[in-house]
């Protein structure tokens, strides 16, 4: 079975023996045929390995091509080495950062870009609010479970700045 799945091919195991004097020997024609079959199997095995590796090579080449063709985002919600120029959106006054030379190089719609910035900002606030509320509720639950009044008080007093900011955006 191992040979059948890993390049050895399938053989039925029958051999032709001829009697020569007091002993039996494998037929020369069968030995020649077996040698010829092994050479064909080796060629087929090499070709099948190449065919089996082709999808993997194709995926590797595609991922390499996409990584070479991808570009940096136009903006960032936080300042870093690449994004140093501070800007504000016109509607919600959300801070965002762009690369130096943004005004000269950017060819798209500023209004559409600012809309995307605001959507990303609100999404980040929602995620932060979810985490803050979840943490607060877990602390309240633990405090109730253990009967810890001090932990319960701290949990009730815990601030949720992302939720507060999100509320002010919608309110």
Round the Cα radius of gyration to an integer and report it.
35 Å
The DSSP helix count reads 6
Uncertain runs are none
Determine the oligomeric state from the structure. Answer: single chain
Computed structural class: mainly alpha
Tally of extended strands? 5
- Average the pLDDT over all residues and give the rounded result: 83
Major sheet characteristics: 3 strands, antiparallel
Classify the beta-strand content into a percent band: 5-15%
Order of helices and strands: HEEHEEEHHHH
Helix content: 55-70%
Enumerate the strands of the largest sheet in spatial order, edge to edge or round the barrel: 3-5-4
Measure the end-to-end span: 71 Å
Topology:
Layout: H1 2-5, E1 17-20, E2 23-26, H2 28-69, E3 75-76, E4 85-88, E5 95-98, H3 102-105, H4 110-146, H5 149-157, H6 161-170
Antiparallel strand pairs: 1-2, 3-5, 4-5
Helix pairs in contact: 4-5, 4-6
Q: What brief labels describe this structure?
A:
171 residues; mainly alpha; three-stranded antiparallel beta sheet; two-stranded antiparallel sheet; 6 helices
Walkthrough of the structure:
With 171 residues, the chain is mostly helical. The protein has 6 helices and 5 strands. It has a domain of 96 residues. The protein has a 3-stranded antiparallel beta sheet with strand order 3-5-4, with no helix packed on it. Strand 4 and strand 5 form a beta hairpin. The mean pLDDT is 83. It comes from Hirondellea gigas. One of its GO terms (biological process) is cellular response to misfolded protein. InterPro entries: DnaJ_subfamily_B/C (IPR051100), DUF1977_DnaJ-like (IPR015399). One of its GO terms (cellular component) is endoplasmic reticulum membrane.
């Amino acid at each position: 079975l191992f040979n059948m799945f890993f390049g050895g091919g399938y053989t039925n195991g029958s051999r032709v023996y001829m009697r020569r004097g007091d002993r039996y020997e494998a037929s020369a024609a069968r030995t020649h045929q077996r040698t010829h079959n092994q050479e064909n199997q080796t060629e087929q095995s090499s070709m099948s390995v190449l065919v089996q590796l082709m999808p993997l090579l194709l995926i590797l080449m595609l991922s390499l091509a996409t990584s070479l063709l991808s570009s940096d985002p136009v903006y960032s919600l936080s300042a870093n080495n690449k994004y140093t120029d501070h800007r504000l959106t016109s509607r919600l006054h959300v801070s965002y950062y762009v690369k130096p030379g943004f005004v000269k190089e950017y060819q798209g719609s500023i209004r559409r870009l600012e809309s995307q910035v605001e959507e990303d900002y609100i999404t980040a606030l929602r995620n932060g609010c979810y985490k803050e509320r979840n943490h607060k509720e877990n602390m309240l639950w633990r405090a109730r479970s253990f009967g810890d009044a001090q932990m319960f008080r701290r949990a009730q007093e815990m601030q949720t700045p992302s939720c507060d900011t999100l509320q002010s955006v919608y309110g």
